[in-house]
TrEMBL record:
One Pfam family in the UniProt entry: OMPdecase
Protein species of origin: Halanaerobium praevalens (strain ATCC 33744 / DSM 2228 / GSL)
Pathway named in the protein's UniProt entry: Pyrimidine metabolism; UMP biosynthesis via de novo pathway; UMP from orotate: step 2/2
Entry keywords, A to Z: Decarboxylase, Lyase, Pyrimidine biosynthesis
Protein name: Orotidine 5'-phosphate decarboxylase
Main enzyme class: lyase
Gene it is expressed from: pyrF
Domain Orotidine 5'-phosphate decarboxylase as annotated: residue spans: 18-277
Length: 305
């Protein structure tokens, strides 16, 4: 199978799961048996130890959720924060997740002029073992900044469309002279550009990010776009729930994955999993991932297997 988007579809079907587990190692939320809290008092001096702790944390999480999720999404900000050891940790995490059969969506929101975008694409998407399968991008520079991420049909790009954050509407909801909002214009642009990269699934390797925290907009965008696959972040910690993401899927329950990062990574901190204790954070993460998978399948009227 050639296309990234078809690989993602197949993994979703294989696991009957529409979740995406974020790998967002917020250091201040880590269990103490993994990361000594004193490390945070002088992180600059302790980056190596912190990165080693994050790698162990991630590997245990991956082991706990590998059969439940088609894809993981490392958020680059948390690895960049740890400088060189952090980047090593990121690549080791990616290699580990790949060994476990997971697809990797790197959340870096990269982009630039065409020649620089090409360098980003080569840095993060080129290669088999030590490379992501897809990356989040900012579409604001237009097509020459996007096309380098789509050159290899085995790789995909997820462009920011209508984001989940509270100030998303400040720019994205502005009205253009033709009556469309900025995000509606971006949506049309992505569908048009992505039509050259359609897989057998009917979806394009050029996908989009649409937040769970704006269900009305999510519904309208799904109605507008029939060949653009969605990453839907904002589930759990940001307040989005199963009812909010339903309209992001097509009538067959296809066309999207829903991300949760803190809600799964740090589930051990929730009252419902408190009995497990911080040392069993991976078990808590597994329980939270199972619950999310089930809630999404239920709201889409899909069987739970
Ligand atoms: O619109 C967007 C785009 C990206 N994100 C990223 O997704 C995760 C969400 O983390 P939670 O802990 O589940 O809130 C995080 O990496 C964001 O940078 C997003 O939330 N919204």
């Amino acid at each position: 199978m050639k296309y990234f988007i078809d690989q993602l579809h197949n993994k979703i079907e294989e696991k009957n799961s529409r979740i995406c587990v974020g790998l967002d190692p917020h250091l201040n939320l880590m269990p103490e048996n993994i990361l000594r809290p004193e490390i945070l008092d002088n992180l600059e001096a302790n980056r190596k130890e912190a990165a080693a702790a994050v790698l162990k944390f991630n590997q245990n999480l991956i082991d706990a959720v590998a059969d439940l999720t088609p894809v993981v999404k490392p958020q680059m900000a948390f690895y960049e924060k740890l400088a060189v050891p952090g980047m090593e940790c990121l690549w080791q995490t990616i290699a580990y997740a790949k060994e476990k059969g997971l697809l990797i969506l790197l959340d870096g929101k990269r982009n630039d002029i065409g020649s620089t975008a090409k360098a980003y694409a080569e840095s993060y998407l080129e290669g088999e073992k030590i490379a992501a399968d897809a990356i989040t991008i900012n579409p604001y520079l237009g097509s020459d900044g996007i096309l380098p991420f789509l050159e290899n049909e085995k790789k995909g790009a997820f462009a920011l469309l209508r984001t989940s954050n509270s100030s998303a509407g400040e720019l994205q909801d502005l009205k253009l002279a033709d009556g469309r909002t900025v995000y509606q214009a971006v949506a049309d642009f992505l569908q048009e550009l992505g039509s050259q990269y359609l897989g057998e699934s009917g979806y394009s390797n050029l996908a989009a990010v649409v937040g769970a925290t704006y269900p009305k907009e999510l519904k309208a965008i799904r109605a507008q776009l029939d060949s653009v696959f969605f990453l839907i972040p904002g589930f759990g910690a940001q307040g989005g729930g199963a009812a909010d993401i339903k309209a992001g899927f097509d009538k067959n329950g296809r066309g999207a994955v829903v991300n949760s990062s803190r809600g799964i990574n740090f589930a051990y901190r929730k009252a419902e999993y408190a009995d497990l204790g911080p040392e069993n954070y991976a078990q808590a993460a597994r329980a939270a991932a199972q619950k999310m998978k089930k809630e999404i399948n239920n709201v889409l009227n899909l069987p739970n297997t």
